[in-house]
């Protein structure tokens, strides 16, 4: 596959293993990624993880602000194939029709389930028992192209966005390299998606980060681990914003919805619409993540028991 000219388009950490495998097995002639972003107190320009990887291998990087208006640069490279993974912009029709072997996308869900930009988060938040990687042909609609191949993994109760991210990024890199020979040989499958089975995973909104204790304890538990380690679910405790980073399920079913019914070194037991959760780790505003044991150190339990979170 070293004779095939590949343009890779991706941005976050998730896409780095895919790029690494492509560099080892194909001829990556250009990497397209999002513009550098200002981060931190000093607003220092930070390159994307994909850009860092490309530059380590002396591969040219192109960072258009709007790919729909700046695609001419890519056309000049005349690639055999364009491969995308978590790029972050809609690819224009002019690029979709450009390469001999088409445009291929590495998507972090079992399409047609969870089309969109947050499939890792939503697979956990929605309570899915499994997820996976889909290698697909790109089309003008969002994640709507024909499926080439898929591979599944189970979502365990102990998983969060961080663990699923790591599992799927490695799986995606491996599955793509195993699939590319059939694409170049023209022997791959091409299965249209069943539109009746489509679900969406739009990007997480601020409102979705706020914990709603009017849901069951399982739904709240899924929300917390489905938002960790980023962007992290939150609630308020006496008007102070508290980010909740870890919890576990409880069979206790006493108190009002959102009320802290028990305080111990194990955690804060909070009533949900059905049963309770135990908050075991949290991050107070302006402070580092800590165990509830450390959080309640120096506080009176009486000042916490009966408090309703989110009010």
Give descriptors for this structure.
alpha/beta
Distance N to C terminus = 59 Å
Overall geometry comes to elongated
* Structure annotation, total helices: 9
By oligomeric state, this entry counts as single chain
**Uncertain stretches:** none
List the strand order in the largest sheet: 5-2-1-6-7-8-9
Helix content: 10-25%
CA radius of gyration is 22 Å
Mean pLDDT score: 96
Quantity of strands, as a count: 15
Order of helices and strands: EHEEEHEHEHEHEEHHHEEEEEEH
Structural class: alpha/beta
Strand content: 25-35%
Main beta sheet strand tally, sense and closure = 7 strands, mixed
Molecular structure report:
With 311 residues, the protein is α/β, with parallel strands linked by helices. It has 9 helices and 15 strands. It has helices at 16-25, 49-56, 72-75, 93-96, 119-125, 161-185, 206-209, 217-225, 292-295; strands at residues 5-10, 27-32, 37-39, 44-46, 61-62, 81-85, 103-107, 130-137, 147-154, 233-237, 240-250, 260-263, 268-271, 276-284, 290-291. The termini are far apart.
List the helices and strands and how they pair.
Elements: E1 5-10, H1 16-25, E2 27-32, E3 37-39, E4 44-46, H2 49-56, E5 61-62, H3 72-75, E6 81-85, H4 93-96, E7 103-107, H5 119-125, E8 130-137, E9 147-154, H6 161-185, H7 206-209, H8 217-225, E10 233-237, E11 240-250, E12 260-263, E13 268-271, E14 276-284, E15 290-291, H9 292-295
Parallel strand pairs: 1-2, 1-6, 2-5, 6-7
Antiparallel strand pairs: 3-4, 7-8, 8-9, 10-11, 11-14, 12-13, 13-14, 14-15
Helix pairs in contact: 1-6
């Amino acid at each position: 596959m070293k004779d095939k000219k590949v343009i890779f388009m991706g941005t976050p950490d998730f896409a780095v293993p895919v790029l690494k495998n492509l560099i080892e097995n194909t001829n990556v002639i250009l990497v397209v990624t999002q513009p550098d972003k200002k981060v931190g107190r000093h607003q220092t320009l930070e390159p994307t993880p994909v850009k860092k990887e490309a530059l380590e291998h002396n591969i040219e990087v192109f960072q258009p602000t709007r790919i729909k208006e700046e695609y001419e640069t890519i056309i000049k490279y005349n690639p055999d194939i364009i491969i995308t993974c978590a790029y972050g912009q809609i690819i224009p029709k002019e690029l979709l029709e450009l390469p001999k072997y088409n445009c291929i996308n590495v998507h972090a869900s079992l399409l047609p389930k969870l089309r969109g930009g947050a499939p890792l988060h939503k697979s956990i938040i929605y309570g899915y028992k499994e997820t996976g990687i889909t290698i697909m042909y790109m089309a003008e609609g969002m994640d709507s192209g024909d499926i080439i191949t898929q591979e599944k993994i189970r979502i365990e109760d102990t998983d969060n966005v961080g663990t699923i991210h790591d599992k799927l990024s490695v799986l995606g890199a491996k599955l793509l390299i195993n699939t590319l020979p059939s694409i170049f040989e023209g022997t791959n499958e091409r299965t249209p998606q069943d539109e009746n089975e489509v679900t969406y995973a739009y990007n997480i909104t601020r409102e979705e980060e706020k914990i709603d204790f009017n849901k069951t304890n399982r739904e709240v538990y899924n929300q917390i681990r489905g938002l960790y380690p980023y962007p992290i679910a939150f609630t308020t405790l006496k008007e102070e914003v508290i980010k909740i980073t870890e919890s576990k399920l409880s069979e206790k079913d006493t108190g009002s919805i959102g009320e802290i019914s028990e305080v111990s070194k194990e955690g804060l037991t909070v009533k949900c619409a059905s049963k309770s959760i135990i908050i075991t780790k949290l991050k107070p505003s302006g402070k580092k993540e800590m165990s509830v044991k450390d959080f309640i150190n120096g506080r009176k339990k009486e000042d916490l028991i009966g408090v309703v979170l989110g009010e």
